[in-house]
Amino acid sequence: MEYSMNRRNFLLALSPLPRTEPDLILYNANIFTVDAAQPRAQAVAIAAGRFLAVGSSDEVRNLSTARTRQVNLEGKTVVPGFIDAHTHPASSGRRHLREVDCDLRSIKEIQEAIRRRAAEIPRGQWVVGFKYDDTKTVEGRPLNLRDLDAAAPDHPVYINHRGGHGSYVNSLALQKADVNEKTPNPPGGEFFRDANGKLTGLARERATAPFRRLLPSRFTRDDYREGVKLIAKMMTRTGVTSVHDTGGSPEDLQAYQDARDSGDLLFRVYCLIGYAGLDRMIAAGVRTGLGDEWVRVGAVKLAQDGSISERTARLSKPYIGRPNDYGILVTEEKDLYEQARKAHAAGWQIGTHSNGDASIDMTLRVYERLQKEMPRRDPRFRLEHCTVVNPDLVRRIKALGAIPNPFSTYVYYHGEKMADYGPERLEWMFAVRSFLDAGIRVTQTSDYPPGPFEPMMALQSQVTRTDSKGTVWGPRQRVTVEEALHVGTLHGAYASYEENLKGSIEAGKLADLVVLGRDPLKTPPLELIKIPVERTMVGGKWVWEA
Q1: SS3 of 29, please?
Q2: Is-contact 99 130, C-beta < 8 A?
Q3: Helix locations, 53-106, DSSP H
Q4: Cis previous bond, 525, omega within 30
């Protein structure tokens, strides 16, 4: 194995940084650099938060001075810091602070958690929960009105599905929102009813709006910062060093800056701004790219269809066993075009939530139209999720230079839901193999809370296409461990225009890396999820050590 620094890397090591004296050297390591010019190394020198040199242990250690701290990694595997290119850190952190975590394995346990919260707050106040998953409870059925009425009859209850596109409410919540059997479904939403036409308590997509408007807005500016602090600790301990917050608001952007000022921002943030905040940002003269290596304004976030985990994504063919159900379209194409046109004209990158093939088709038409009417040199249009594709959609994505951001942990974690899509369609879902073969820079994403954010779970899911029970879904989309590492690092940097700044271990780039307990190339594929993260470094500082 060749670890020697080539002349290019040596010159890079000595030129772009303010000094050439390393603060820290990590040596005797098994380093996967994700740098095509030098794929493997033994050591790195770090100065002022960046990689100063990458190469063999002997070469790099020769750069040390009396002030350089040296750490022998004793053969441990090192990879670039993982980039979660679609997640919801700020809002998730706040939810962990205040809401009932319903990631439980029985309806009885969920009821008990709701009862405990109801006992802590005055009668009539809302009990709010999140991360409920309808396929993970032993009862084998979803929550309903009666379950929630029994748990908290004197409190309105609102429990958000883990997928984020549907919520379960009780009778008092229906009453407060003035929703009843005669209330029609809103455009792009549904109040779910049983066979007798009675409301079950489930509201999907835009039908959640009457309830969301009533939920207490009880977060202070300090709560926002505390939420970021909490979620940053949770994510960096799994090896995540950069996030793309794809549900951000101007307040979230402020929260990240406040956390940075207080020393609590442990990862880097590319903050996409939801369409509702776009006018405020444009009026302030802000657009994609403003910021620095820690907090940067990202794309504008638009939404086109429903959820994969909740089986509401808009498909061209019906769901298995549901012959008249094609999913939900939350935004008509003409409205999506108007929203996207405003952002494109103002110089913003655009990321559109598009899960199903019918939705992706519409979103691509909008992007293609924008490039024809107002061509931009490098718009890097994003397709958030981009789950169900076909050869023609892949061709159009490549031609447009768009970036698909599919779920990375879904096959492993949400495998029991995949039967609703059928084996034929699964061969074109989470299509990392097809994207890579087409030369498309596909990314790694969790969409947390909908999907777990652990990068090792993502690697196993992508490499094996096997769920937690051992069922294989869409094996033709398997990739190698090396490919998955590229997807989870350098490709994520490209999606935020930062491929020259991070995503690989190269001299001059930001010193973000992860130390693993085992070599993923020598680990059985079905045991990748068990590889421990021993240390996480961001900007040359350890932000997590086991």
Answers
A1: coil
A2: yes
A3: 57-61, 89-98
A4: no
Give me 382's structure tokens: 């994003």
Query: Is the CB of residue 452 less than 8 Å from the CB of residue 413?
Result: yes
Q: What does the pLDDT look like over 36-48, one tens digit per residue?
A: 999 999 999 999 9
- 538: closest CA among 256, 262, 232, 255? 232
Contact 528, 488 (CB under 8 A): no
Token couple for 239: 């090896």
Tokens 């976030």 belong to which residue?
301
Could you tell me if 468 and 411 are in contact, meaning their C-beta atoms sit under 8 angstroms apart?
no
Asked if residue 251 lies in contact with residue 224, where contact means CB atoms within 8 angstroms, the answer is yes
Q: What is the pLDDT of residue 19?
A: 58
Task: Please name the amino acid found at residue 7.
Answer: R
CB under 8 Å to 294, separation ≥6 — which residues? 260, 265, 268, 269
The tokens describing 242, both together, are 């950069």
Query: CA 464 to CA 478: how far, in whole Å?
Result: 6
CA-based max dimension of the chain: 79
Residue-wise pLDDT tens digits, 249-274: 999 999 999 999 999 999 999 999 99
pLDDT of residue 6: 47
Q: How does pLDDT run across 361-404, given as a tens digit for each residue?
A: 999 999 999 999 999 999 999 999 999 999 999 999 999 999 99
| 6: CB partners within 8 A, 6+ apart | 37, 38
Round to whole Å and give the CA distance between 76 and 519.
Answer: 8
Whether pTM exceeds 0.90 = yes
Residue carrying the six token digits 């935020």: 496
CA–CA distance, 475 with 97 (Å, rounded to integer) = 39
- Structure tokens that stand for 445 in this block: 């994403």
Instruction: State which H helix or E strand residue 257 sits in.
Output: helix 250-261
